[in-house]
Amino acid sequence: MNVSLTDYPLTSESCVTSLPFVVDLDGTLLKSDLLFECAMAFIRSKPSQCLKPLAWLSHGKAYLKEQLAQSTEIDVATLPYDPDVLWMIEGQRKSGRKIVLATASHYSLAVRIAEHLKVFDEVLGTTLERNLSGMHKRDVLVTLYGEGGFDYVGNSFDDLPIWRSARQAYVVNPLAGVEHATRHLGNVVQVIRSDTTSFRSWYKALRIHQWVKNALIFVPLLAAHQLANPLPLWHGVLAFVFFGLCASGVYVLNDLLDLADDRKHPTKRHRPFASGSLSIKSGLMVFPLLLLVSFTGAWFCLPRAFVVVLACYYALTLVYSLVLKRLMALDVIALALLYTLRIIAGGAAFELELTGWMLAFSMFMFLSLALVKRYAELLLALHSGITGKTGGRDYFPADLAMLSSLGAASGYLAVMVLALYIHDSATTALYAHPRWIWLACPVLLLWITRIWLLTHRGRMNDDPVVFALRDRLSLAMGAVFTLIFWVAA
After folding, report:
1. Judging by beta carbons within 10 Å of its beta carbon (0-12, 13-18, 19+), is residue 91 exposed, middle or buried?
2. CB within 8 A of 372, min separation 6: which ones?
3. Does the 197-320 domain belong in CATH 1.10.357?
């Protein structure tokens, strides 16, 4: 816990215990904002009505909060509460103080949170008649407890008038400029900084390490033996960056839509947005900015065909996030298509024609890897004692045997496509010694078999592509695979 105390003197213990200790919710006790939580839950459950909240907002913020609270299901048990604030509340309770939850979030949600935490004696929240924020909250608290008749814990500029009317002010993870604005109040007794927002959090949220998948863009250039050509290579670098920015925007949006499921997952609950280390609001600002930079850069620097493929990639990821990822079989086929679209994007960026062999190999190979990912998730769920449908997916742990059969078969079909490719007339024209490519088949068979055996043993805890890049034996087999093609050429 990172707590700093100011030089303001504390009042006597008897005086403190006679006053209610009032705690804000959004951004203070909760490392999130329930308005945005409800909005994302509504969009995920009813994507066809995603503009409806804007119509509700036209009737006022209180009406918006009322409608969202009634239209969504929020699991308050999995929300990211700040342990430092809970620790402070517990200390005040032990001293005999009355603890009050006063929030701008809807009253019904605040009551459910109070019932879950069991640390509050009274709850104040927004109703259809009144949005309990800023001056409205200040007026209610002064009416109930009197000017200077309560202590208040908050975090934002909306809390400034409340702190002015409180006897003692507690500032938690203040937003930019808030702590400076509170210095002239003269009643700030404690500042708590437990906010973990950092460069590392954004690095994880944008999943920069996943950009390595975009190396598939260079596959058409490698297959055409033009990697040494500087202009196409430069186009490839630009395509790699713009595709990465688009993919990061998609990852952020996907995490925002998957908050509820991620928080129930043993590892995904540590993701920045699910854990509260990054705010939903910041994610909603960043993901369209990433998309804007990506598509603008692609439009001015690369062929129009690349922009079209990039748009198809984004459209498919959006449909995947909203619908397909919760549909059996369609989810893994969509993932295989998303990988294949990277190769198609490379062909568009380099203005090279792709062969049917390359696209068929890609679909079968990445379908196998998508099934690896699903199998690993289901196996983890089974070991966690889950026997029903896993959160957000249309699979049961009982499907494990079928998924492994389908995945291994798909991987072996990719090897068969590679074997047939050797006899194609275009291959014999492109390679001086095409028969050497036969040696790549057993290498690929070994890698696919090993990946599936490791997955079956529960050792696949990451994306299989990311796993391969961290696995020494996979890297060694990849080097041998590349060497075989170099010798064949």
Report:
1. exposed
2. 407, 451, 452, 455, 460, 464
3. yes
Phi, psi of 190 (to 5 degrees): -155, 140
Q: What is the pLDDT of residue 168?
A: 95
Q: E strands of 63-121, at which residues?
A: 99-106
Count Cβ atoms below 10 Å from residue 82 Cβ, excluding itself: 23
**pLDDT score of 482:** 87
How many CB atoms within 10 Å of residue 198? 12
pLDDT tens-place string over residues 113-165: 999 999 999 999 999 999 999 999 999 999 999 999 999 999 999 999 999 99
**Token code pair at residue 313:** 């990639």
Alpha-carbon distance of 8 to 188, in angstroms, equals 7
Distance CA 368, CA 379 (A): 16
For position 463, what pLDDT does the model report? Answer: 78
Residue 2's pLDDT band (boundaries 50, 70, 90)? very low
Degrees, nearest 5: CA angle 307-339-239: 35
Picking from 89-93, 306-310, 351-355, which range would have the lowest pLDDT averaged per residue? 351-355
Burial bucket for residue 170 (CB in 10 Å: 0-12, 13-18, 19+): buried
pTM, whole model, 2 decimals? 0.85
Q: H/E element holding 380?
A: helix 356-383
Class of domain 3-192: alpha beta
114's tokens: 């109070």
Do 3-192 and 197-320 have matching folds? no
- Per-residue 3-state assignment (H helix, E strand, C coil) for 117-168: HCCCCEEEEEECCECCCCHHHHHHHHHHHCCCCCEEEECCHHHHHHHHHCCE
C-alpha to C-alpha distance for 27 and 5, rounded to whole angstroms = 20
Amino acid at 164: R
Long-range CB pairs of 388-393 (<8 Å, 24+ gap) are: 391/260, 391/261, 391/264, 391/265, 392/258, 392/260, 392/261, 392/325, 392/326, 393/325, 393/326, 393/331
Enumerate residues 6+ apart whose C-beta is below 8 A from 481: 440, 443, 444
CB 473 within 8 A of CB 450: yes
Q: What is the domain partition of the chain in residue ranges?
A: 3-192, 197-320, 355-489
> Which pLDDT does position 5 carry in this prediction?
30
Sheet-wide strand order for 21-23? 3-5, 188-192, 168-172, 151-154, 21-23, 99-106, 122-126
